[in-house]
Amino acid sequence: MSPHQAEHYPPWLVLHVPHDSIDVPPAVRGQFLLNDSDLLAELTRMTDHHTLALFAQPDSPAAVVRAPVSRLVVDVERFQDDAQEPMAARGMGAVYTVTSHLKPLRRPLSTGEHEALMQAYYHPHHARLEAAVSDAVERHGRCLVIDCHSFPATALPYELADPAVDRPDICIGTDAFHTSPELASAFVTAFQREGWSVSLNKPFAGALVPISRYQRDSRVSAVMVEVNRRLYLRESDGERMPEFDDVASRIRRCCLAASAAVCSLRGFLLFGQQDGRNILTLSKQSNDIQVTGSIEIQPCQWESG
Ligand SMILES: [Zn+2]
Which of 100, 140, 179, 243 has the fewest CB atoms in 10 Å of its CB? Predict the structure, then answer.
C-alpha cells in the first residue's frame, strides 16, 4: 500500500494526550480547597475532554502516551522546574495552586508533598513518552509527536486573553526546531480542507518534545493540534455532541494525511565514476518515496582553494 492510500497512522507516530483525564485520586483529593461540585465544575472547564477518542486510532501501530490523572493533579505539559515554566508565575506550573479563574485551588504543599506528586505522576509519564519516542527513532529513524489538545470556545480567565475575541476551530502549535515549515503547512492545509478555520500558534503556541531530544535531535518532529471544543463537546457538562464520531474521524484523517510531510533523514551522498566522469549522487528517502539525483562534477571544482 502506498503512503497516499494508508488508513492507519504510521508506527513512528506518537500521540501525546496530556489533558484528557478527569481522575483525581482519593489520596490527592484532600489537597484541594474546592467542594465536590466546584471541583467538578473546574474539571469540566479545564479537561481536554475525550481527546484520546478524538485522536487515537485503536488499530494503528502508533504509540499513545496519555496522562492517567487530571491536569489539576499534575500538569505533565509543563516544565518540571517552575523556574523554566512561564505559567508558574500564574500559579499554574506542573502543580497548580490556582483555578482557571485564578482563585485558590490547593492548600500550600510541603516540598515533600510536591515531590511526591511529581514522582507519582509527572516522572513516570515523561519516562513513557521518552521510551515511545526512542522506540520510534530506533526502529524507524524518525518520530512525529502529535500533542493532542482541545480548548474552550471562550477564553478562561487564566489565559489572560480577551474572551470577546472569536477563536478558530483548530489551532496548530509549532516549535522552531522540531516543526519544519512543510510539516506546519501540511497540518494547517489538512484541517482547512475540512472546512475548519485554522490558526497557527494562536491562541496556543508550541509543541511538546521529550526533554532529552529537545532542540538536539532533528529526527524528532513535533506539532500540537488544539481542537475547539465547540466542534464536538457540550461544554456545560463535558458530554459528547451527536456529531462526535464524525468530527473524530475527520481529525484523524487530517493527522494521517499531514503526517506524510515528515521527512526521514535517511539518505546518502556518494562520489563515484561513470564512463570516466566524476559523479556525485544524492539520494534521500522521504517516507516510502526514494528520490535520487546525480550530477557530474569537474575535478577543478575540488582543487581550488
Ligand atoms: Zn490541553
Answer: 243
Tally of helices (H runs) and strands (E runs) in the chain: 8, 11
CA of 158 to the centre of ligand 1 (A): 13
Compute the distance from residue 149 Cα to the ligand 1 centre, in Å: 4
Domain count of the fold of the chain: 2
Q: What is the CATH number of the domain that holds 239?
A: 3.40.630.40
Q: Do residues 155 and 10 share a domain?
A: yes
Output the CA 303–ligand 1 centroid distance in Å. 57
Considering the entire predicted model, what is its pTM?
0.85
Co-location of 98 and 208 in the same domain:
yes
Which residues of the chain fall short of a pLDDT of 50? 1-4, 264-268, 285-289, 300-305
Q: Please write the tens of the pLDDT for every residue from 39-58.
A: 999 999 999 999 999 999 98
Residue 179 alpha carbon to ligand 1 centre in Å: 19
- Same domain (yes/no): 286, 237: no
Residue 139, domain extent = 3-259
Q: Separation of 27 CA from ligand 1 center, angstroms? A: 24
Nearest partner of 174 among 90, 115, 258, judged by Cα: 258
181 CA distance to ligand 1 middle (Å): 23
